[in-house]
Amino acid sequence: MRRPMVAGNWKMHGSRASVGQLLDELLRSATPPEVDVAVCPVFVHLSQAISTCQGSALSVGAQDCSTHESGAYTGDVAARMLADLGCEWVILGHSERRAGHTESDGLIAQKLQAAAAAGLKPILCVGETQAEREAGRAGAVVAGQLRGALEGRDKPVGLVVAYEPVWAIGTGLTATPEQAQEMHRFIRDELAALDGLDAAATRILYGGSVKPGNAGELFGQPDIDGGLIGGASLVAADFLDIVAAAA
Ligand code: 13P
What we know:
The chain is of the alpha/beta class. It has a domain at 61-227: Alpha-Beta Barrel (TIM Barrel), CATH 3.20.20.70. 42% of the residues lie in helices and 15% in strands. It is built from 10 helices and 8 strands. It has helices at 16-28, 43-53, 79-85, 95-100, 105-118, 130-134, 138-150, 177-192, 212-219, 236-246, and strands at 5-9, 36-40, 58-62, 89-92, 121-126, 160-163, 203-207, 226-229. Strand 6 (160-163), helix 8 (177-192) and strand 7 form a beta-alpha-beta unit. Helix 9 (212-219) runs parallel beside helix 10 (236-246). The chain is globular. It starts with a strand and ends with a helix. The chain binds 1,3-dihydroxyacetonephosphate (13P). Residues 9, 94, 164, 169-170, 207-210, 228-232 line the site of 1,3-dihydroxyacetonephosphate.
C-alpha cells in the first residue's frame, strides 16, 4: 500500500565535480521501480542535480526552505523557487536545523505550509536526543514535534515523516529494528489522531546511521517505509545497496 522510499540527505557536502560523479554512478544502475529514490543536495547543487536526473528514476529535494514567498530575506530560498527549479521534495525540521538554527515547531509548521503551497512534498523530520530518551521522554518529544508542526493546519499533500533519533545521526549508533518499529508505530498512531491525514497511507522513513548492513532489517519492520540516509548516501554503491534493501 505504501511505496517504499529512500532519500539521500547530502547535507553540506560536495562540489560540482563530486556531485556530477556521484549522480553518474547512481544513474548507471537501474533502481528498483517499486522504490521512490530521491537525492537532496545543497541549494547551489540543486540545478545541476535536477538537470542531470531529468528523465531518470531519481527525484530531487532541497534541505530547507523559507517560510516566506519572496521579499527582503537575505540568504533565504523560497519554496516556490525550489518548485520552479524542479524540486519535488524538501526536508524540513532536520535536527541539525532545529539545533543549529534554533528552528521551533512553530517555524517548521510555517515552512510546511509554505512548501505545500508551492507544491513541494515535505519530508518532516522528528526525533529525540539521547538525554530525552534516557529520561523516558522520547514518545512525548516526538509527539510534541508532530503536533507542533501539523496540528490545526492543512495537511501537506504527499507528506513524508522521517524518524531520526538525534543520538543515531552520524554516530554509527542505530536504533534497533525493534526500537525503531516501536517509534514508527507510535508516530503512525499520533498521525492517525490528527484530522485530515491518512496515517495508514503516510510514509514514515527511518534515519540515523543506516548502512547497507542494517538497512534490510530496519526496512523489514511493518511501519518502516524506507530511509533518510546521510553519510552512506554519499557513496553510490552503499546508497544503491540501501535502495535495493527497500525493494
Ligand atoms: P547519517 O545517516 O549520517 O547518520 O545521517 C542521518 C541523517 O541525518 C539523514 O537526514
